[in-house]
Amino acid sequence: MRKNVLFAAAAVTILCVANANAQTDEGVHWPMFRGPQAVGIAEGFATPTKWDVESGENIKWKTAIPGLGHASPVIWGDRVFVVSAISSGQKDPYLKVGLYGNIDPVDDPSVHQWLLYCLDKNSGKMIWEKLAYEGVPRIKRHTKSSHASSTPATNGAYLVTFLGSEGLFCFDFDGNLMWRKDLGTLDAGFFRVPEAQWGFASSPMIYENKVLVQCDVQENSFIAAFDLKTGKEIWRTAREDVPTWSTPMVHVSDKRAQVIANGWKHIGGYDLDTGKPLWWMRGGGDIPVPVPVVAHDLIFITNAHGGMAPIYAIRTEATGDITLEDDESANAGVAWSESRTGAYMVSPLVYGDELYILKNNGVLTCFDAKTGKRHYQMRLGTGQTGFTASPVAANGVIYFSGEYGEIFMVKAGPEFELLGGNEMHEICMASPAISEGMLFFRTRGHVVAIGE
Predict the structure, then answer these.
(1) pLDDT for residue 16 is more than 50
(2) In angstroms, rounded to a whole number, what is the distance separating the alpha carbons of residues 347 and 438?
(3) Is the pLDDT of residue 10 over 90?
(4) Phi-psi map region of 286: left, alpha, beta (phi>0 left; psi -120 to 50 alpha)
(5) What gap in Å lies between CA 202 and CA 248, rounded to an integer?
(6) What is the CATH number of the domain that holds 325?
(7) Enclosing H/E stretch for 169
(8) Are 418 and 45 in contact (CB under 8 A)?
(9) Helix (H/G/I), strand (E/B), else coil: 105
(10) Are 205 and 16 in contact, with CB atoms under 8 Å apart?
(11) 38 — phi, psi (to 5°)?
């Protein structure tokens, strides 16, 4: 069994979904992991395809962020929010990226500070910073992870950030704490080696008056909804699953509203109002990380590790147990599936009629999203390049971020065309954000805004 452990905001870093009705300005707000509806797409503005961080070409601003964090930037209007964890014991916290299989955690029992930063989108100037929590982390992190890997979520009035075992926090737009929930010790790590603590990465999501979180850990996993204004628990549903690092998402149709969660023992949909399971399936990779994506009335879920790497295209109206039999690739709940092409770390992207799946070693496969027909399979990078951040797209261009800061740009469509590449000159583990034609990258030590 492979023991590659590549955690970050893909999702790892990765993930969360806000109220679609709140997105009043298309292409402006990026309110959660992977933007509106967690699909990773922003339209309405041209985005840059060429920049140079060292010379300053097309670099709007570059603001230093202390500490270590893989959480993505989130944006509402002219404000950019980002979270970081600062160790008092390590001025330069240990971080090892690339393709490797070491499962050992980082031993840093020093006091940490978790800070939330608010930046001006147009200038990068710091508007405010807020100390959310200070203390010794309850759980260790993996050598590729951080103690601030969960991306915040906002609806323009509230800002919610999840610090794993340190708690779930809600602030107003001036950085005032509205409420905090201690959800206990959330021990996420390799279920076969429980002492290999890897840290938490699932992001919160906001939908209307609810904050939804997925907490798959070594013991007592659950998915839950809390009142956005007060933090009061609305419902909590137990999950029989091993630790995962995926962010749930919401899908609403005329027939029902559901919260969708990736998993190994329990991939499934839950009633948004009650938490009651609506459909479920078992099987796949035993370290689920990628975030579910909905398009064309299908739910796309992928995961990998432990001998399986499937892609599932699940019907949004599925009900009951839809687990595939050994000889099946489809059934009443699953429109189509692939058994070996799924992604370990990187969340899927559906852009137009195509589904894009990127493995952490750079192998990119493009499918017809509706039928599962494979269009192409190509490699980004040299084969030694690791990928953890999830892709984003705008204006017909898909942006793929390599861990060492290489940004690959691919033309959207059924035929492969590499448009070029740019270097960030820093480690890049977080998935980028897009707003008004600007790209926002969270690198090892900065937030960088790029625009024509």
Answers:
(1) no
(2) 21
(3) no
(4) alpha
(5) 8
(6) 2.130.10.10
(7) strand 168-172
(8) no
(9) strand
(10) yes
(11) 60, 25
Secondary structure class of 399 (helix, strand, coil):
strand
**Mean pLDDT confidence for 288-314:** 97
CB 275 within 8 A of CB 235: yes
Q: What is the distance between the alpha carbons of residues 174 and 30, in angstroms, rounded to a whole number?
A: 18
Please give the pLDDT value at position 253. 96
* Any domain includes 6: no
Residue at 283 is within a domain: yes
pTM of the entire predicted model:
0.94
Q: What are the C-alpha distances in Å from 235 to residues 213, 222, 270, 271?
A: 11, 10, 11, 10
pLDDT in tens, 200-209: 999 999 999 9
Handedness of CA 278, 283, 289, 292 (dihedral sign): negative
Count of structural domains within the chain: 1
9 lies in some domain: no
Return the pLDDT at 283: 86
Cα distances from 427 to residues 55, 70, 330, 442, 452, in angstroms, run 18, 10, 40, 9, 23
Instruction: Let me know: does 107 contact 143? Beta carbons within 8 Å.
Output: no
- Burial class of residue 312 in the structure, from the number of CB atoms within 10 Å of its CB (0-12 exposed, 13-18 middle, 19+ buried): buried
Mean pLDDT (whole number) for 430-452: 97
Say yes or no to pLDDT of 222 above 80.
yes
Residue with tokens 């922003």: 42
How far is it, in rounded angstroms, from Cα 35 to Cα 28?
10
| Domain with 301 in it | 20-450
Averaged confidence pLDDT in the chain? 94
Residues 422/51, Cβ–Cβ less than 8 Å = yes
pLDDT of 2 > 60? The answer is: no
Percent of all residues in the chain with a pLDDT value above 70, rounded to a whole number: 95
pLDDT of residue 351: 98
Element (H, E) at 376: strand 374-379
Report how far residue 244's alpha carbon sits from residue 367's, in angstroms, rounded to the nearest whole number.
26
Q: What is the mean pLDDT of residues 195-214?
A: 97
Q: What is the DSSP string of 305-364?
A: BTTB--EEEEETT--EE-PPPTT-S--SSEEEEESS---SSSPPEEETTEEEEE-TTSEE
Do β-strands 320-321 and 277-281 pair in parallel, antiparallel, or remain unpaired?
Answer: parallel
Distance CA 249, CA 430 (A): 19
Residue 10 in any domain: the answer is no
At 13 the pLDDT is: 36
As a whole number of angstroms, the distance between CA 388 and CA 70 comes to 10
Q: CA–CA separation, 60 vs 451, rounded Å? A: 6
